[in-house]
Design brief:
Elements: H1 13-23, H2 40-43, H3 46-49, H4 54-62, H5 70-80, H6 87-112
Helix pairs in contact: 5-6
Length: 113
């Protein structure tokens, strides 16, 4: 079937399709040497990592364009995390990983100033 347009509009469809394909028995391959050359300004990420502040961090977690959108990450985890009792730990670890990634990414900006 198609992705859940209500909970996962546009930005998480590839994650959802990949998890469902793997669960259905299709082989899933990740090629780690692949590069995606997209100007960062065109992705919307620069508005979240242009400066370090609690306001931009909250935007990083809540904006629809953000790869760290907490609502979308929650639905992907709830939908695909097995066994179900792993869900709370998975969500906690993912939030920690996203927060550390944000603060590390914005630390390089603070150093440049």
């Amino acid at each position: 079937g198609l992705y859940d347009e209500k909970r996962l509009p546009q930005y998480a469809a590839d994650d959802d399709f990949t998890f469902r394909a793997a669960r259905a028995g299709f082989p899933v391959f990740i090629y780690l040497k692949t590069y995606c050359l997209t100007p960062a300004e065109e992705t919307g990420i620069t508005e979240f990592v242009s400066k370090r502040s609690w306001r931009t961090f909250i935007g990083y977690l809540t904006n629809q364009k953000s790869p760290a959108n907490i609502k979308r990450r929650f639905w992907i985890t709830v939908r695909h995390c097995k066994p179900r009792w792993y869900v709370p730990a998975s969500l906690m670890l993912d939030l920690i990983r996203v927060a550390v990634s944000y603060w590390n990414r914005t630390a390089s900006i603070d150093v440049k100033k």
